[in-house]
Design a protein that fits this description.
Length: 654
């Protein structure tokens, strides 16, 4: 039966199954989204650049439990979560997961909360029965090599088969370990078949999953969101289930350790039944009960009851109260809820009941202590400063007080809906603590996002492909933007240049018009003759001082390590009137002027290097070019004057 805050769609389904006459009518079609009429586009009215408004993101947290379906709808706008729907429904007859009517039941439920919302995301949980979560550290490597390094480090530690499991990780940053910079991450593997089952369940209802994660990472959403302002730097979440309990440790809002322990409600029920047995019944309850307990623990992760397995019959011990009655009595007394009159129950005080189940609680405390010690000593983690309890039994204050006293920790109830940490509209949250905390995972799923929540449908391989595609897009955009900027800059420079030249032309025209007298052909001929006369005078002066210029250039170029012994410069002949005809023809045939240099290098270590450097300087001179070594002799130290003697011919440029 649906709770008061659930819809009436379950009642309609139950009537259909029972065959009521009122349910023989044609079922009403699911509400469809109103179709908008296409409006003609007016491109001229649209601005060139427009800023898109942030569209609110609506997330549906879907928790497909073994006996109930829970939903939570949270709208995210400007990073502010707003709770809009909260729903809990019992499965109808034939509508449990895997049965025929489940698809129709899930479709009607999702359609009820899906209508009226845009950009809806659906997140759900995947069974953690065989999920493996562990902390991983690798040496610091370049960012592009992190995925490959983490994969092989995880494969070396766990030896998993990539085709059978889904591997992913979440980075936690860098740390210094004994002088070595390392990268911390939490890696996990989940059997691929579990994800496929959940996808098929949701797909059978006509919807597509946006994300699927596991319980520890769903709780991480709460630690990073609504609970972040109240929790300590290092905290732990302890969920007390029926056959097992889960311990999750978070540091700075990120999961660092997750462990399942064999302790839960059934352990307390066994202690209660053991206390109510007669002495004769207690003698034969050692090996058989231990085997039953182990078998129950192996089935709990699949959400099955060992007594419901084919070919297995529940072996009720010879006790006064059955296991079901003991469980109902224990839950009712610990939570303070009334028991039906038809259920038999013993007359026990609450203190006596706590003493009976204290061994089971003590075993749980011992497992929690061991987990905390492993986190500190083996994982080098921070000491846990705060513990949050959740689960049906955790709603009992006597149980929480007992656990807090044994742990000597700051313990409280994991109840995000019990405070104002999550804003909501006019949703009425359940007043019962046990019912309210049952929505913890549903709320956590509705707080999921692709950025912060590990998603089994979007692993590190998908993130690598997206990053590569985004980088290519950025490069292409940057290239086009660069070309656009260059074109715009060149166009602007052309405009500026055109404006400058126009102004210069106008100024020159004004100066030309202001000239008096105006320029004429006669004036230009006189000006040309005057310039030619000046050029001839400059050439005569250049010929006159050519030898001095060559001597000055040689003086500046020649280093101190070279001693010049001879300096001959063959200058060009004088005017043609002063030269004989034969001499004139010879000068015209060979117009090159040579500078003959004889020098001596006394440095015995690197004479060739000094000479080569000297040739380079002569080649780079504006007055000389094409130096040629005509003679080169080396005088050994035994001679009268040792060193390198050379003769150079250098062309003198005109």
């Amino acid at each position: 039966m649906a709770t008061p805050f659930a819809s009436s769609s379950t009642e309609r389904l139950l009537k259909t199954i029972r065959g009521d006459s009122s349910s023989q009518k044609t079922p009403e079609p699911a509400p469809q989204r109103p179709q908008r009429k296409k409006q003609p586009r007016h491109f001229a009215k649209k601005p060139l650049f427009s800023i898109k408004k942030a569209v609110p993101r609506t997330v549906i947290g879907l928790d497909i439990g073994p006996s109930k379906l829970r939903l939570a709808v949270i709208q995210h706008h400007n990073e502010t979560p707003l709770l809009q729907h909260l729903m809990e429904k019992d499965y109808p007859v034939g509508g449990h997961p895997g049965e025929l009517l489940f698809a129709e039941f899930l479709k009607s439920t999702l359609t009820e909360v899906h209508a009226g919302h845009n950009a809806v995301e659906i997140w759900t949980l995947v069974s953690t029965a065989q999920a493996d979560i562990w902390r991983l550290s690798i040496p610091k490597v370049p960012e592009k090599h992190i995925p490959e390094t983490l994969y092989w480090a995880a494969h070396k530690a766990k030896h998993f088969v990539s085709d059978d499991v889904i591997f992913d990780y979440q980075l936690h940053g860098e740390r210094l370990d004994r002088g070595v910079q390392k990268i911390d991450a939490v890696a996990y593997t989940v059997p691929r078949k579990f994800l496929t089952e959940v996808q098929e369940l949701v797909a059978s209802a006509g919807f597509t999953l946006t994300g699927a994660t596991i319980t520890p990472f769903a709780l991480q959403n709460l630690c990073q969101g609504p609970m972040a302002s109240t929790q300590k730097k290092s905290c732990a979440s302890v969920f007390i289930g029926r056959y097992w309990s889960r311990i999750d440790i978070f540091e700075n809002g990120k999961l660092v350790l997750s462990r399942g322990v064999k302790a839960g409600l059934e352990s307390m029920v066994e202690e209660l039944q053991l206390a109510l047995r007669s002495p004769s019944d207690q003698q034969g309850t050692d090996a058989n009960d231990a085997g039953l307990l182990d078998y129950s623990f192996s089935m709990q992760m699949e959400g099955l009851d060992p007594t419901e397995m084919p070919g297995t019959e529940a072996q009720e011990p010879s006790v006064k109260f059955s296991e079901k009655e003991s469980r109902e009595y224990l839950i009712a007394r610990l939570l303070g809820t009334p028991l039906p009159d038809s259920v038999q129950h013993p007359e026990l005080e609450l203190s006596e009941l706590m003493n009976i189940i204290s061994p089971a609680l003590t075993r749980l405390v011992r497992q929690i202590d061991r987990t905390f010690d492993h986190h500190i000593n083996a994982e080098h983690g921070q000491a846990v400063e705060q513990v949050y309890f959740s689960g049906l039994i955790a709603a009992s204050k006597p149980v929480r007080d007992f656990l807090s006293a044994q742990l000597s920790q700051d313990c409280s109830l994991f109840d995000p809906l019990g405070s104002d940490r999550i804003a909501h509209t006019q949703i009425k949250t359940p007043k019962d603590i046990a019912t309210r905390t049952g929505f913890n995972l549903t709320i956590a799923l509705a707080l999921s996002s692709q950025k912060d929540t590990p998603n089994l449908l979007h692993t590190y391989q998908d993130r690598i492909r997206e990053k590569s595609s985004a980088q290519i897009t950025q490069y292409v955009f940057a290239a086009f933007l660069s070309i656009f900027i260059l074109q715009a800059g060149f166009w602007g420079w052309q405009q500026y240049r055109q404006h400058t030249l126009t102004q210069e032309l106008e100024q020159n025209m004004e100066a030309l018009n202001a000239q008096s007298p105006r320029i004429s052909k006669t004036f230009m001929d006189k000006l040309v003759k005057r310039v030619e006369h000046r050029q001839k005078a400059d050439k005569r002066r250049a010929k006159r001082y050519e030898s001095l210029a060559a001597l000055r250039e040689i003086t500046q170029i020649t280093p101190t390590s070279i001693k010049l012994l001879r300096f001959d410069l063959e200058l060009s002949p004088g005017p043609a009137t002063q030269v004989r005809p034969a001499r004139r023809r010879l000068s015209q045939a060979n117009t090159e002027r040579l500078l003959v240099l004889e020098g001596h290098i006394q440095d015995q270590r690197m004479p060739d290097s000094i000479l080569a450097s000297y040739l380079v300087k002569l080649e780079n001179s504006q007055l000389f070019s094409r130096p040629v070594i005509m003679d080169r002799q080396v005088q050994h130290p035994g001679a009268q004057s040792s060193g390198l003697y050379f003769t150079l011919h250098v062309r003198v440029e005109s």
